[in-house]
User: What shape does this take?
Amino acid sequence: MLVDDQLLIRHGLKSLLNANSDLQVVGDAENGQQAIAQVKALYPDVVLMDIRMPIMDGVAATRVICEQFPETRVLMLTTFDDDEYVAQAMQFGAKGYLLKDTPPDELATAIRSIYKGYTHLGPGLFEKAMANSSGISPLQSAPVPPQLAQLTPREREVLNLIATGANNREIAAALCITERTVKNYVTKILSCLNLRDRTQAAVFAHTFLSNTTQ
Assistant: This one.
């Protein structure tokens, strides 16, 4: 589903995405309030969400959608790469953040990745997700948690690879293990560190792990 206050943008994205045989645009909305109503009616797999819109912005809508419709994944697609926007969107549950100058094939790839449960951030946006202290800051400002000591060296390797944006297949190839083993590692890492998802794990790794493994 497409959410953008500009009709031309919505029509353009619809044409681009429908050109992919495995993607289908099922609806659109011009503000966050409409987006919530459309998600309730259509239950789309993925929502492409703009940031600045009238009535209700994309960050507020993302928070509501992620709380009320957890099966629907939100991918932010906007012209704004402000640190606070990126951090808030990810904190509220968005699974990815891309800019509107992203090439069409990369956008399609990101949608598929988000649908499969991965996170996806455009170039340079991971740093912005960590830059705002009011965003995902609990992982940044808190002392190193004792749970870190529970991770094995291999689990720390997996965590470091998560921080690079690698998916399970790429991690498996890098460490010469199976994807199922990687999935088990990721589950244990999230549990040990009391983290919600891979994005928070990546933030944690950049904040703490690089310092503790030097």
Observations:
- The first helix runs from residue 7 to 18.
